[in-house]
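Inputs:
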Amino acid sequence: GAGVSQTPSNKVTEKGKYVELRCDPISGHTALYWYRQSLGQGPEFLIYFQGTGAADDSGLPNDRFFAVRPEGSVSTLKIQRTERGDSAVYLCASSLLGVGATGELFFGEGSRLTVL
Amino acid sequence: AQSVTQPDIHITVSEGASLELRCNYSYGATPYLFWYVQSPGQGLQLLLKYFSGDTLVQGIKGFEAEFKRSQSSFNLRKPSVHWSDAAEYFCAVAGRDSSYKLIFGSGTRLLVRP
């Protein structure tokens, strides 16, 4: 597709369950980012991939959160033992290079996660 | 601490009126500066950015922003608002040494009166 694609668009789960959120970036974009947007707030950085490797995962809130990008394209954000506080919209973005080089992140529409 | 403040949670303007959305930042050095717009059912879209040079930057959809170093501000302006501009607007900064890590403000929701 032409833009960043995220699936599912909505996910409702129960506390304690495991969740996977998928991001398909724009073709050819080497950099991929995950952000989290809580209600009434701006997005918060979670993790940045350059190619297959996580260049910076300092924004992941704890070890229940993990993300992979095994082939340098599609990425999956994995959340174990979900908690109600994990409820948010998880945004994925990609860019051709880093922000400094191109100046623009292209965001997907997000995956809304609700933990009951 | 690094932060971005958007003091107005909501702003309502009449169609055709001018608009200014405020953004102040706290950062150790001059960061990269951005404005994004988020419309329902759409992803965040970049309106404009400031890296260096001319402090008045032009963006898409008729928006502009002015970087004022002395005030640590990067306010967004538009001379004449259209109904389609109703959306949420986010100011963001990124460090020149960590340009991939955007720090966003909490946003300003713009409502446009017909």
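Chain B has no helices and twelve strands. Flag for discussion at group meeting.
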